[in-house]
Amino acid sequence: MTDFEKIANLLFPNITKDVEYWENKYKSRNLPDGVEVTRFAPSPTGYMHIGHFFGANLDYRLAKSTNGLFLFRLEDTDKKREIEGSDIVALKTLAYYGIVPDEGFTVNRTDNGNYGPYRQSDRTEIYQTYAKKLVAEGKAFPCFCDKPEGKLDVIEKREQQLNSDSQIEEKDPCRNLTLSQVEAKLKAGKSFCIRLKSNGKEGDKVKVFDVVRGEREIGANCKDVVLIKDNGIPPYAFAHPIDDHLMKVTTVVRGEEWISTWPQHVEIFNALGFKPVKYIHTPVLCKIGENGNKRKISKSKDPEADMRYYIQAGLPKQAVLEYLLNLLNSNFEDWRAKNPNENVENFPFSAKKIGTSSPFFDVVKLEDVSKNIISKMTAEQVYEETLNWALNYDEEFANQTNSQKLNVKPSDFAEYLKNNKQYAIDTFSIDRYTAKPRKDIAKWSDVPSYFNYMFGLFNPTSVSDYESDIELKYNTSALSLIKEYRHVFSCEDDKETWFNKIKEVAKTCNFAIDNKEYKQNPECYVGNLALACTYIRLAVTGKTNSPDLYSICKVLKDDVVKQRLTTFMELIK
């Protein structure tokens, strides 16, 4: 037995299995060539970031486009930063968007599949087995660096240095300890971590291949990186090669921020004797900062960084998925234009069409996509989606929505919708089934505000409650028009009769019916027909812009419309 093997036995006396045991336990999946096995492996350290979801969506599309498998693995080795429940948040967020893993860690915190455990904290024995093998082969060594009490942890400090982007050679002083020195330190109760004995030298290069970026040459690793921390748990750099190897993952999707430490992973794969997985390093999602410069979407600054933002705001699932697909594959927008009614799952997704430059994540553009999608829904679908949003609304999000301003609780709004289903569907039908449907609603949280005049949420007490730049107070022209119109209005009229009555009343109140005549002699009139219609629209809806006014009046009925006209008159007197 060599000294290296003796050191390995001293360091890991409880590890009795060898690597062959684990290699035999996790057999080949026997999948056809070209089939991808991907994994999403978040750390349970908080909410799901939009960037993580961006990558998970790619994992899922890549697997499904090849009839492959998508796994969920929980990388929970950083216990200091772990936030209870965030593992379930990640799974539920994926499920909300229809991304359901084929195997892996589940919402019941159990394993589904034959390649588990799928939680890294349950795989410690596996990692230590491979670490023991590397020590026995002289490819890794124990580091016994002291931790001065009350000072920064030396190992943590060195870890910051060794995991920095710099490729300056940094070899650990413990790498050449003899068997007797190791024995002495262990007998003295010294704690240790396991480090890779790097073969890299400053200036060395290594060739790497990215599915999207192609082959490139980057500085080789020349740092003795940590493989097992002093608590017996591995960092990402050592855990993910072992997990991906044993779970037979074919392609790893991760952010481009990992490129700088890629050489470390290459050397670890080589030391373990594993065939490296394929990598796709996704670009970072960015936005325009206050200074006009491009910056990464921030957890601390941007509410849209949290995937719960889109759920709580009520953005349709399809809108979020389609917008992200457009950022992943630039040809998606053209495909959607040619296939407006096609299921998004039929889009021919291709990893080769992923861009390498950081895309701008624009909430305004996302909402434009959403408006287009909602405009194509049936009134019944809009009703069900709005009701579902109101029933599942997060009260903590209320401060960021219009419903708070309207002094209506989502639960109350949900109750209203349930009690007035047909009325609500009739409302959502307005301007919907046309060649060019209106595109005003971007998210379900917009509905209470947008249709406030239809759902009893518009109760003006002064002229300032009307959304208008027109001076309304003591407006005699508006007053006389509304007074006359109130006498003739009837929701029983057909649209032509309804509009003719407006023209007759407008003419009586000295509004120009012929716009050409008005432009030639504006001083002869109090306004044109468009202004007259605006006054009526304001009186009924409180807005200068709304869906078809005739349809609105038909749904509201006579009593409500006439009461609105009366209120308007009283407030502008």
Structure description:
With 573 residues, this protein is of the alpha/beta class. Helices cover 42% and strands 10% of the residues. It has 24 helices and 15 strands. The strands form six sheets. The protein has a four-stranded mixed beta sheet, with helices on one face. A hairpin with a 5-residue loop joins strand 3 (103-105) and strand 4 (111-112). The longest helix has 16 residues, at 50-65. The radius of gyration is 33 Å and the shape is elongated. Mean pLDDT is 90; it is low at 148-163 and 396-406.
SSE layout:
Blueprint: H1 3-11, H2 19-25, E1 37-40, H3 50-65, E2 69-72, H4 86-96, E3 103-105, E4 111-112, H5 124-136, E5 140-143, H6 154-162, H7 179-187, E6 193-196, E7 205-210, E8 214-219, E9 226-228, H8 236-246, E10 251-255, H9 262-272, E11 278-282, E12 286-288, E13 294-296, H10 308-313, H11 317-328, H12 332-338, H13 363-375, H14 379-391, H15 402-405, H16 410-419, H17 421-429, H18 447-450, H19 476-488, H20 495-508, E14 511-512, H21 515-520, E15 527-528, H22 529-541, H23 549-556, H24 558-572
Parallel strand pairs: 1-2, 2-3, 10-11, 14-15
Antiparallel strand pairs: 3-4, 5-6, 6-9, 7-8, 12-13
Helix pairs in contact: 1-5, 1-7, 8-9, 11-13, 14-16, 14-17, 19-20, 19-22, 19-24, 22-24
Summarize the structure in short.
This protein has 573 residues and is α/β, with parallel strands linked by helices. The protein has helices at residues 3-11, 19-25, 50-65, 86-96, 124-136, 154-162, 179-187, 236-246, 262-272, 308-313, 317-328, 332-338, 363-375, 379-391, 402-405, 410-419, 421-429, 447-450, 476-488, 495-508, 515-520, 529-541, 549-556, 558-572, and strands at 37-40, 69-72, 103-105, 111-112, 140-143, 193-196, 205-210, 214-219, 226-228, 251-255, 278-282, 286-288, 294-296, 511-512, 527-528.
